[in-house]
Amino acid sequence: MRMVDLITKKRDHKALTNEELTWMIEQYTAKAIPDYQMSAFLMAVYFNGMTPEERSHFAFAMLHSGDVLDLSDIPGIKVDKHSTGGVGDKISIPLAPLVACLGVPVPMISGRGLGHTGGTLDKLESIPGFNVAESETQFKQQVQQINEAIISASGEVAPADRRIYALRDVTGTVESIPLIAGSIMSKKLASGTNALVFDVKVGNGAFMKTTEDARALAKALVGISKTAGVKSVALLTDMSQPLGITIGNSLEIAESIAILKNRGPKDVHDLTVALAAQMLVLGGKAASLEIASGLAEDALRDGRALNAFKQLITAQGGDASVVDDSRKLPQAKYRIAVKAAESGIVDQIDTNALGLAAMQLGGGRAKKDDILDLAVGLVLHKKLGTPVTKGDTLVTLHADTENVDAISNMVRNAYHIGDKAPKKTPLIQEVIRP
Known about the structure:
The structure is a single chain. The protein has helices at 3-11, 18-29, 35-48, 52-63, 92-100, 120-124, 136-146, 159-169, 177-188, 211-227, 249-260, 266-282, 289-301, 304-315, 351-363, 405-414; strands spanning 79-83, 106-110, 148-152, 195-202, 231-238, 246-247, 334-339, 344-349, 377-380, 387-388, 393-399, 415-418, 428-432. By secondary structure, the chain is of the alpha/beta class. It has 3 domains: 3-49, Transferase, Pyrimidine Nucleoside Phosphorylase, Chain A, domain 3, CATH 1.20.970.10; 79-325, Pyrimidine Nucleoside Phosphorylase, Chain A, domain 2 (3-Layer(aba) Sandwich), CATH 3.40.1030; 330-418, Aldehyde Oxidoreductase, domain 3 (Alpha-Beta Complex). Strands 1-4-5-13 form a 4-stranded mixed beta sheet, sandwiched between helices. The protein is globular and about 65 Å long. Pfam families: Glycos_trans_3N (PF02885), Glycos_transf_3 (PF00591), PYNP_C (PF07831).
């Protein structure tokens, strides 16, 4: 085979075979195919797409470019969750212990954030001592013992995807559903889970801005899962405003603890329970979503989920006393109020702008090697549909410097205040199954 022939074939709207895609990924991983040829192929995919079969073969080829965990010696149906990411999305943190305490093994291999805030791993690292770099043996033992672990991927998981991901970032080919789906699935399937729940965000604070794009990605993800023999379901969830009331690493840990104490923002609680219900059904612990939701609510009320989070922290070397005293989490030096310039009702929020403000405070990465300030972030006092009087605090900035005038203005301008409440958008917009 020659790479130029595969590029030409995809350029001419023809589907590549499993053998061709496997050969291409093997050769690229071995550095026998140069970046400029892979860039040409990625651009051809960007414009011409892939068939469902190609998407699966592409994901599997990248999956098998590295290590694949074998969790078959862990009893039960292993279930993981993946979110496409959004501003204030901290759901994995309360979700894993909630599902684990109800008997479903949750082996999570998670990531770090690039953009508005840190990823799940960065947030967990704001807990003193929490170790996300467990070995494969430690990971498997922990899931066997307490049904949960959240760690970083090893350098040998889907190495082809790591190289292609970096290439997409500099060649204008990020926004391609086949490439996005292949990237996600090559890493998620490598974790050895039996079932997956996808949380696909849609709205101005999400990667997918339209329902049509979010639905297409969700269908691609569940389609690849089905081909792989992995049970799955995808939820399209609202990201037209931040999720919850905090944006920032330690702030989101504190909010997650509140959820596990059966308190906290309703949207975070409701989405956590909804995703938990899907995981419990896929994990064979409930016959229906209604029963599963009831089980999840009970575990939040009676403290089992909170206790499971303490177990997770302790098992990974962290200080579980933060659950009872959030002051042990990193604290910013200053609290700066951003006040409304007019009265009315919040009818629109530029969610991305709030995420960018958190990043500029130091809570997110503009570049991959940026060091995070785990203490900084935003606490929201007003969300969509909330009445506002001029001078009310819209947001409190948690900052390590008082020189945040530009960020304050950015946050103030992210709020549009009108004279009537916006139409309510359902938190869960659609459920997509194979």
